[in-house]
Amino acid sequence: MLIERIELRLLRLPLVHFFETSFGRVHDRTFILVSVHGEGAVGLGECVADADPFYSAETTTTAWHIIGEFIAPVVLRRTFAHPKEVFGALAAIRGHRMAKAAVEMAAWDLYARQQGVPLSRALGGTRAAIESGVSVGIQDSLEQLAARIETEVAAGYRRIKIKIKPGWDVNAVEFVRGRFDAVPLMVDANAAYTLADAAHLASLDRFALMMIEQPLEYDDIRDHAALQRTLNTAICLDESIHGVRTAEEAIALGACRIINIKPGRVGGHTESIRVHDVAAASGVPVWHGGMLESGIGRAHNIHLSTLPNFRLPGDIAASRRYYAPDLIDPPIEVRADGTIAVPTGPGIGVDVVWERVKAATQATRDLS
Ligand code: OSB
Ligand code: MG
């Protein structure tokens, strides 16, 4: 697989509904779309870095810089026997896993298209459909939260995740449990607490939550281990799992019982498979997170979720929840049973509407 040219596009898409987490409210998403060209084919990757450094240290601007000045020079005009070699080839570049992942995932798509197989098969996945869950942001009122959950439960989603932060946590969960007593429910704090909040977080134990996602600092392992010892509810780590090494540390120290995998956060599909495999070897289930991707990044997420240790519903919902219209047509749909069919065409297997991409483009850069 020869990489001949890389094209970057900076896109901006308005969200159908604002999305609020403990670190803020967003109304649109700015992200980089990467096209990797080689031997007559094109692979696509979507960078999950946000415009601001609030979820992670990377931003769209740092990723643009790192891809253009450091990643492209390593991979351009180079022949890879397999896309699993790309992440290792970038080892000299410290960090910047979102920037690396965007290019690495585009290389996987290119490879799968050249082989004429769906990306899921190239990745070693085994399922024809994946389970879909939904992430519901912080709303202006508890009534509005209940109304949104009502809609998502009716649509068939297999689990509901609500975002929490101090002041919108035990009260919100108690309210939701009062209305939806049996719904599979979990919470995500996006690092909004400290170990001093352990007793407060333990008061969530009585609501039969599937897990509490990332309660403490974005790069912490140790305090999560201490917190997990005081909670009955499983901790799931998101931000703290930067790759296979932090996954091994977290599992060894008992910092979590479940891991959220986002290929963008760990450096791409290859590193995601490694995290998936070390978790499987320790009996730790994983599930696929989301970063409000367009249908292009979401398609990558669907394919990766076909690996066997993705044992819980992912944050991979229908296109219509995010963008109207999405960048792909047909859009991603969730069926009444809460599953998504894995695309069967070559590569990511979705059709990009380039007119929509062009309309959303703020800047471009050609690297060759
Ligand atoms: O923490 O999982 C998160 C969105 C943006 C940044 C971080 C997170 C999220 C989500 C939304 O929870 C998942 C999605 O629906 O794409
Ligand atoms: Mg999260």
Short summary:
The protein is an alpha/beta fold and 368 residues long. Helix content is 34%, strand content 21%. The structure holds 2-succinylbenzoate (OSB) and magnesium ion.
Characterization of this structure:
With 368 residues, the protein is of the alpha/beta class. It has two domains: 132 residues, Enolase-like, N-terminal domain (Enolase-like, domain 1); 220 residues, Alpha-Beta Barrel (TIM Barrel), CATH 3.20.20. 34% of the residues lie in helices and 21% in strands. It has 13 helices and 15 strands. The strands form four sheets. The chain has a seven-stranded parallel beta sheet. Helix 1 crosses helix 3, helix 5 packs across helix 6 and helix 9 packs parallel to helix 11. Magnesium ion binds next to loops.
Assign a percent range to the helix content. Answer: 25-40%
Biggest β-sheet strands, sense, barrel: 7 strands, parallel
Query: How many β-strand runs?
Result: 15
> What is the distance, rounded to the nearest whole angstrom, between the alpha carbons of the first and last residues?
16 Å
As for the number of domains, it is 2
Question: What is the count of DSSP helices, taking H or I runs of 4+ residues?
Answer: 13
Helix-strand category: alpha/beta
Neighbour order of strands in the largest sheet: 7-8-9-10-11-12-13
CATH architecture of the largest domain: Alpha-Beta Barrel
Residue fraction in strands: 15-25%
Give every kind of bound small molecule, once each. Answer: 2-succinylbenzoate, magnesium ion
Radius of gyration: 20 Å
How are helices and strands ordered from N to C? EEEEHEHHHEEHEHEHEHEHEHHEHEHE
